[in-house]
Amino acid sequence: MNPERRPITVEDLLRLKRAERPADSFWQQFDRELRAKQLAALVTKRPWWQRLPRFSPRLAQYRFPLGAAAAVAVTFVSVRNYSGDISVPDSASNPVAHTSSEVAFPGSGGTHAFNPANSSGATFAAASGEFSPAFSEAALSSTASADAAVAAESRVNSDATIALELSRIVPLFGGTAAPQESELSPSARNIAANLQVAELHESLGGGLLTGSSGRGFESRALPARAAMVDPLQQMTPPGEHRRARYLTAMISTPADESLDRTTARMAHRISGDELYEQVQRFGTRRGGFNVKF
Amino acid sequence: MIDATKVFGKALVASPERRQEADADVEIVRQVQAGDVAAFDRLILKYRERVFGIIYNMTSNREDAADLTQDAFIKAFQSIHRFGGQSSFFTWLYRIAVNSTLSHLRKARIRSFFSLERVDADEPVSKEIIEALTDRTGAERDSYVRELQEKLNDAMQKLSIKHRTVVTLFEIDGLGHQEIAEVMDCSIGTVRSRLHYAKQLLQAELQPYIRR
């Protein structure tokens, strides 16, 4: 180094790195590779999440307030719905639930009054007198109720159903007079019919099975669960293994079913300890057979 | 579409040259966004050396730098419709390149192989520095320069990734503090702090070549 020259700083040394440049041939190859990658990028299908529309940058800066507002709104709606579910009045105070419904059943040949609010079991009172017993659990399991539900569904546009639904809805809005059929629009008929069918299904399938009709959440039909089994009961005790081993050694291979039954009887009669002692008494030595007493 | 006045309204593009440059970039980007794919080639030609220089000085490896530069341009091309003009195009492109390089360096922290590019000794600045450093000529001088390059690379690699990035952008590429803060998504104070710390480390490492 020449001490008489100008001072050298770190910045000067780093500036030297600016002068590091690749040769021209490098850029030719670089361009070729870049072109190939560019074409591949054009051809390659992009993932679906990259094709989703994005918010504009102006909206993006408000993403946290917007997200928070959305979360609050969802929470509010959820809480409100949940509160609505649990605050459904019981059957005694619900005038709608107390209103008897009339459903047409083809098999009975008449119109039946159906009271879904009865907690001990809905009562079908057949107007024609052909079918009037109170529901029991056995009756629920029978196919009669299912057939009735299907039949009711198939007659969703029946006059009786429409009249029933209107008789339920009108008092809620302060109306008194029962509407005539001619006053109903087709959509009103459908809505009324669907409501009726849904209520019938719920009462038959869920409420009566659980024995708690008209109680919101509990009235839903629950899937059958397998009975809980103690894990210890599922284990085979060590004595059983030992007994089975000894039986296998003692008893020859069964040739027919009678031998199988004999083996099973012996296995049940002889406890593990007894069997162990018996086997210990028998033995072979020097070509002979020993028995200990 | 992109409003060029918004780009210029920021303190990012200070000098008239930069302003003119950004204006031209906005025009090209607008063409690409309108469907003129070939217009992007002009942006590649314009910025490939600078982007490569940044990545090369961050990685100290030519092949990696070439790959990462290409990837940065591909990403920019794929996302060009999302460029809204909040910053200048080259800041946006730098951000893509720097983020890709940082991600790459984090994945491959241990690297044993470094490649060196040839120093352009005819460039006035480098010529002056080299002459100030040594009286040697010919092959001896080339050997000395190569040794200095290796020392510089070693010293740079001893810095953390973020310190190295700041030094590269400021000292080698010549970006301002504000621009580096934009590219690295941090405050100007952080940029200054990192720069100061990195220079101290480099000074300690390159002491034999520093003359006061």
Explain the overall architecture:
The complex is a heterodimer of chains A (293) and B (212). Chain A is mostly helical. Chain A has 12 helices and 6 strands. Helices cover 52% and strands 9% of the residues of chain A. Chain A has a 3-stranded antiparallel β-sheet with strand order 2-3-4. A two-stranded antiparallel sheet of chain A has the order 5-6. In chain A, helix 7 runs antiparallel to helix 9 and helix 8 packs across helix 9. The radius of gyration of chain A is 42 Å and the shape is flat. The termini of chain B are far apart. Chain B is mainly α and 212 residues long. Helices cover 71% and strands 1% of the residues of chain B. In chain B, helix 3 packs across helix 5 and helix 4 crosses helix 5. At the A-B interface, helix 1, strand 1 and helix 2 of A face helix 3, helix 4, strand 1, helix 6 and helix 7 of B.
- Low confidence ranges of chain A: 88-144, 211-216
Name the structural class of chain B: mainly alpha
User: Count of helical segments of chain A?
Assistant: 12
Alpha-carbon Rg of chain B, integer: 19 Å
Q: Give helix and strand order of chain A, one letter per element, not per position.
A: HEHHHHEEEHHHHHHHEE
Give the N-terminus to C-terminus distance of chain B in angstroms.
Answer: 53 Å
Q: Which stretches of chain B are poorly predicted, pLDDT < 50 over at least 5 residues?
A: 1-13
Helix/strand/pairing category of chain A: mainly alpha
Give the biggest beta sheet of chain A.
Answer: 3 strands, antiparallel
Strand order of the largest sheet of chain A: 2-3-4
| Content of β-strand of chain A | 5-15%
Task: Please trace the helix and strand order of chain B, writing H or E for each element.
Answer: HHHHHEHHHHH
User: Which descriptor suits the 3D outline of chain B?
Assistant: globular
Mean pLDDT metric of chain A? 64
What is the strand tally of chain A? 6
Which term fits the overall shape of chain A? flat
Number of strands of chain B: 1
Output mean pLDDT of chain B.
82
